[in-house]
Amino acid sequence: MSEEVTYADLNFQDSGRKKSIQEFGTVGIKEPAATSHVWHQRALALILLCLLLLIGLGILGSVFYITLKKEMRTLNTLQNIKEELQRNVSLQLMHSMNSSQMIRNLSLTLQEIATKLCHELYQREPEHKCKPCPKKWIWHEDNCYLVTKNYVTWQKNAMFCSAQNASLLMIKNKSVLEFVKSRNLRKYWLGLSPRKYYADYKIVDETIFSSDWLVRNTKDVDDTMFCGYINTIYVSYTLCSDSNNIICEKLANPVKIENTLMSEIPDEKYD
Ligand SMILES: *[C@@H]1O[C@H](CO)[C@@H](O)[C@H](O)[C@H]1NC(C)=O
Ligand SMILES: *[C@@H]1O[C@H](CO)[C@@H](O)[C@H](O)[C@H]1NC(C)=O
Ligand SMILES: *[C@@H]1O[C@H](CO)[C@@H](O)[C@H](O)[C@H]1NC(C)=O
Ligand SMILES: *[C@@H]1O[C@H](CO)[C@@H](O)[C@H](O)[C@H]1NC(C)=O
Ligand SMILES: *[C@@H]1O[C@H](CO)[C@@H](O)[C@H](O)[C@H]1NC(C)=O
């Protein structure tokens, strides 16, 4: 019985296996159709994906292209603005250069006017504040002159002038010659180079400009040398150890505009 059961079981088991085998076989035969369907779907999905990707790429490309175009336009605009700015800046630079030139011209003109005005004021009041020379000095054109009645040796005159940051009188141009003629100077030392030998007197005229004028005040002058002096309209020589009057000259300072604009009234109050 047990054997039978076992057989039956076996049989049953066998038939079950057969069935399963059969089922398996059915599946095996059925399979190719199902797979192609899945592949179809997958391929479709892939194609779709590819299409989507392509569309995406296209959109990205066009976005990129549009952006690039826009950026290029912006760049161009910026370039144009930059060029315009450069043009404007250089124009402004030229303008300000013109302006500073004009300011320079104006201040030069103002300085000239102030100097002229100061000359006028100086005629009326020789010690007016605007005068660009120290007190007691005479102002003539670009120069200041100190004319004193002190008889000293030529060397003492030279030393005195040095101490005043000035030099002996040298008649090198028309301006100084005019001053000399206007002052009728009686026996004043001149800044001529001392000579070993005596020289005759000469009338003061423009030929004096090319005389042997000092380059600087000399110290090595001995008592046997001859020095030049002016006596009214003549230039003469005498021993350097002789005595003549002191005269010095130096360059006038520029006229200070504010001093010219100041009225004379405050000065009169102090006087
Ligand atoms: C350049 O100057 C002109 C005229 O002065 C002005 O209209 C323009 O806006 C300026 N350009 C720039 C970029 O400042
Ligand atoms: C600068 O001045 C000159 C002449 O003095 C003139 O021709 C030029 O136009 C001026 N430039 C400016 C930017 O004002
Ligand atoms: C400044 O003066 C000079 C010479 O006097 C002249 O050549 C120049 O044009 C002037 N400039 C201006 C901006 O007035
Ligand atoms: C001479 O010049 C010097 C230096 O420039 C200055 O210190 C001195 O005060 C001046 N002397 C006179 C009398 O002007
Ligand atoms: C004349 O010469 C003096 C120096 O001796 C100088 O200071 C002055 O500037 C000169 N004047 C002219 C108009 O050249």
Share of β-strand residues = 5-15%
- The total beta strand count reads 8
Main beta-sheet strand count, sense and barrel state: 4 strands, antiparallel
Helix vs. strand class? alpha+beta
Q: What small molecules accompany the polymer chains?
A: 2-acetamido-2-deoxy-beta-D-glucopyranose
Q: Low-confidence parts, pLDDT < 50 over ≥5 residues?
A: 1-12, 14-21, 23-29, 265-271
The percent range for helix content is 55-70%
| End-to-end CA span | 166 Å
Quick one: CATH superfamily of the largest domain? Mannose-Binding Protein A, subunit A
Outline:
GO terms for molecular function: carbohydrate binding; pattern recognition receptor activity; signaling receptor regulator activity; transmembrane signaling receptor activity. Residues 140-249 form the C-type lectin domain. The chain is of the alpha+beta class.
Question: Can you describe what's shown?
Answer:
A hairpin with a 2-residue loop joins strand 6 and strand 7. The longest helix has 123 residues. The strands form 2 sheets. This protein has a 4-stranded antiparallel sheet with strand order 1-2-8-3. A 4-stranded antiparallel sheet has the order 4-6-7-5, with no helix packed on it. The protein is built from 5 helices and 8 strands. The N terminus and C terminus are likely disordered. The protein folds into 2 domains: 92 residues; 115 residues, Mannose-Binding Protein A, Chain A (Roll). It is an alpha+beta fold and 271 residues long. 57% of the residues lie in helices and 11% in strands. The structure holds 2-acetamido-2-deoxy-beta-D-glucopyranose (NAG) (5 copies). The site of one 2-acetamido-2-deoxy-beta-D-glucopyranose has 8 residues, from helix 3. Keywords: Cell membrane, Disulfide bond, Glycoprotein, Lectin, Membrane, Phosphoprotein, Receptor, Signal-anchor, Transmembrane, Transmembrane helix. It is found in: Cell membrane. This is C-type lectin domain family 12 member A. One of its GO terms (cellular component) is plasma membrane. GO terms for molecular function: carbohydrate binding; pattern recognition receptor activity; signaling receptor regulator activity; transmembrane signaling receptor activity.
